[in-house]
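Risk register update: the risk of archive-format incompatibility is retired. Evidence:
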Amino acid sequence: MTAAFIMKEIDKAADLGLSHVQLDDGWQQGLSRNSAHKSGVKWEEWSREDWNPHDERFPNGFKALVDYAKSENIRLGLWFNPSQNNSYAHWERDADILIDYFRRFGISVFKIDGLSFYDKRSETNIRKLLDKVFNATSGQVTFNMDVTANKRAGYHYLQEYGNLFLENRYTDWGNYYPYRTLRNVWLLSGYVPAERLQVEILNINRNRDKYHADDPLSPENTGWQQAFAVGSVGQPLFWMELSGLGTDDLNILQSGLEEYHRILPELQGAIVLPIGEEPTGFTWSGFVWIKNNQPTHALIFKGLTTEDTHTFNLPGHIENVSYLSGAVPLALDVMPGKDRITVKLQGRQASVFLKLEQE
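Archived output:
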């Protein structure tokens, strides 16, 4: 990670119409034990100096980088791992570090990682940290709470501070499959507000050698349209180096994002619930958006199945269903009773966004 590299990421993010570029682990002077650099050993305990920009990777600090991002209508976010020692006894110092970045650079999004609530005092002190930052910035700071390991806040409490970084999957490990991310979101959305979930979209063309060429569910064989559709259920998180995307990839994603931004205002304030079957890569599944106790939109996913047509039960009545984006359906019907829709899609894997109308 270097300033020059981040500027390239900002350029690509601006081209795609994204809102934020978040610098993950590696921007800070104190390198963590997850670093590829052999000097990285930090995790449970950090000093104040550890949270300065890395003097080799960012020799001129952050000001020019922040200014450049603003000129491209991009906001920067930072990864942060509070010191665990003595049940997060240094919570106030850590809060001051984040407040300082907000006041000096206007950085208002922080990914909070590495938490481990091994006693009640740990939980209490982290809440104090979050509250202090929230109050000192008049609620302008948002936290992305990483919920990928250990005993952490996230799904059922401490939700009021921001969003949830849902999962760590990587093509490098061969464990990223779009249908697995879809399954996570589908299962959680019945209990956790889906709009709070940051849903990973990886570069489907990286590490092709980690997957069998004939694997029909591999990221490459699933395709961009399906991978992006999964991310659009919550908050799409492009968990990748954008500057590593090819021209064709960028064009496909740009088109998908334009459609997403066109539909997004209609989805604001809705409740998202799962419909259909549990995703396995071979099933019909989906989500329905509900406003004022009425279904307004649906996102349908067809897995690897020979069944071209499927009927979905809805939590309410509608009069009409129409196409918005994605794979063009061969047929759409509202079933007698007005609380079910039938969707017919072509192809082995496909997804479609639909508008559900009351009149």
